Amino acid sequence: MFRIYYGLIFLWGSLAVNAQMTEGEPPAHMTQKELHTWNQRRAFRKEFVNIQTLSSDIILDIKYATADNFLKQAVYDCPQCYLRKATAEALVAAQKEFVKRGYSLKLFDCYRPLSVQKKMWKILPGTHYVANPAKGSKHNRGAAVDLTLVDLATGKELDMGTPFDTFSPRAHHTYTQLPKEVLDNRKLLKEVMDKYNFKSIYSEWWHYEYRPEMAAPVEDLPWECP
What we know:
By secondary structure, this protein is an alpha+beta fold. Helix content is 35%, strand content 15%. The strands form 2 sheets. It has a 5-stranded mixed beta sheet with strand order 2-4-5-7-6, with helices on one face. Strands 1-3 form a two-stranded antiparallel ribbon. A hairpin with a 2-residue loop joins β6 and β7.
């Protein structure tokens, strides 16, 4: 009888905890630090989406999860691409058109926490290549992506004239002293991205911002690694 009684109590307690979590309430007996982390993650899941849950064929090469970037160090714990939901959905629509043309998007960077922006600013302050963290960048809002195109027939990136994060005039959209193939590749990327409401910036051929989300709040929320 006692075993049945205590078993029912345990079952009721488990159901109560599950109900709490389903309703969006934090589990009981959390420390203040644990509660802060839990609230951050809940806010992140509400506003952001992992792009690969919407499109598994988009290629990821998240540079800031490696040392292959201008910082020369990894500043992300894992290579994930999160964006605000509307931005992600528009990017998936662009990807579908690129695939029809024989190409795929390859993403170098997506949402970037504000704390990472501050690290970048310390290394390269006072230029138009890194946004001042005092104002925040479109990456910090989850509304910007850094990307290129891959030829699906060869698996190779299209020649865009410079590598990603080349801080020089050659990376500018207005720089025309490049082979016709490079100019055509940049034009293709820009035209399709613009069609799906992504705005380019003059100094970086790889950077695009989703217009409807450009005024979204700056965030410093972490994402969970697998």
